[in-house]
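Students often ask why we bother encoding 3D structure as a string. The short answer is that it lets us treat folding as translation between two languages. Here is a chain of 79 residues written in the first language.
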Amino acid sequence: MKVCYYCGGTVEKKRIRHIHEWGEQIIIFENLPAEVCTQCGEKYLSPETIEYIDRVTSTKKPEKYARVPVISFPEKVLT
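And here it is in the second language, the structure alphabet:
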């Protein structure tokens, strides 16, 4: 891919951090190959990368763990 589907910007290959939700878990993939728009930042993952994520999500033991804070948005703020 050379042009962003959303904004028409230039897309280039990079290594990214990708946050993946798996049920109630949040898994952070580091150094993941992707194509990223230099204009809007949209990220594109190849089918092979998506297959890798699917395969290792349920089988590979994490290399490290991170604590992630969770904050709920209160309903009263919008009223």
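Translate back mentally: The first helix runs from residue 47 to 57. Keep this in mind for the problem set.
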